[in-house]
Write a structure and sequence with these properties.
about 240 residues, alpha/beta, D-Maltodextrin-Binding Protein, domain 2, 2 domains, 5-stranded mixed β-sheet, elongated
């Protein structure tokens, strides 16, 4: 045990705290985890990032995070070392594409429908056979789940952002919306809709949210972020995950 602790200390001490300043952080509008309100970046995942940076005396803070459309941020993180994207669902098919630090929060991705439509779906095959239309965002976990499930392209509409997708569902332009359940409900409420008028009709994935990091990033920086997150959570500085 003592030897293991010494190795951990050597690993952390071998990376200067200022080295975290080499990282570039990207996020999107994905409330309540990360979103802009009153011209400031807010949310539970943003708070976690801020705590990690402050603990390591980094010069960076939430004001240095770039807010980009999801697909652009996703592609940028895949391409450029030292790039960190959050909050990202860590799914089986994404696992080998990035390095990961987390978890940050639980995540449920569902098919959401208007309750008055009375749509009942037990599997994606029901969506296909019923000819239902569904809106999603490119490179989002919902869109990837639809593709993996064999949903034909002619039944899927790609929205430019999550607010546009929400309006498409609310206005009846599509039958379903494939997206994070908590985020979808937050957006509906914030935009004046009664959340009770909508319902989740199928669970697509239930995977946690993480920081996704370009795989060419220095492994010691990634480990420093993970060790700091674990330490802050163990100390009670960050809420524990259920």
């Amino acid at each position: 045990m003592c030897r293991w602790l010494m190795l951990c200390c050597l690993l952390v001490s071998s990376v200067q705290a200022s080295e975290l300043d080499r990282l570039n952080f990207i996020t999107e509008e994905y409330p309540p985890f990360n979103h802009v309100a009153d011209e400031q970046l807010k949310g539970s995942s943003v708070d976690i990032l801020d705590a990690i940076l402050q603990h390591n005396k980094s010069r960076l803070n939430r004001s240095d995070v770039r807010v980009l459309p999801w697909a652009r941020g996703y592609d940028t993180t895949l391409e450029y070392p030292n790039t960190v994207l959050f909050s990202t669902t860590r799914s089986r098919n994404r696992d080998s594409l990035f390095a990961w630090v987390g978890p940050l929060a639980a995540g449920r991705v569902v098919l959401l429908a208007r309750r008055d439509k009375g749509i009942r779906i037990d599997a994606l095959s029901d969506l296909i056979e019923g000819g239902y239309s569904v809106v999603a965002l490119r490179e989002d976990i919902g869109a990837q789940a639809l593709q993996e499930g064999g949903v034909p392209d002619n039944q899927v509409r790609m929205a430019v952002n999550n607010v546009s997708a929400m309006h498409m569902l609310a206005m009846g332009r599509v039958d379903l919306w494939a997206y994070g359940e908590e985020v979808a409900e937050w957006l509906l409420q914030e935009n004046g809709h009664n959340v009770a008028d909508f319902e989740s009709v199928l669970l697509l994935t239930e995977d946690p949210l993480y920081f996704a990091i370009n795989r060419q990033t220095d492994a010691q920086l990634i480990q420093l972020m993970q060790d700091t997150l674990d330490q802050l959570r163990a100390e009670g500085s960050l809420p524990r995950l259920d």
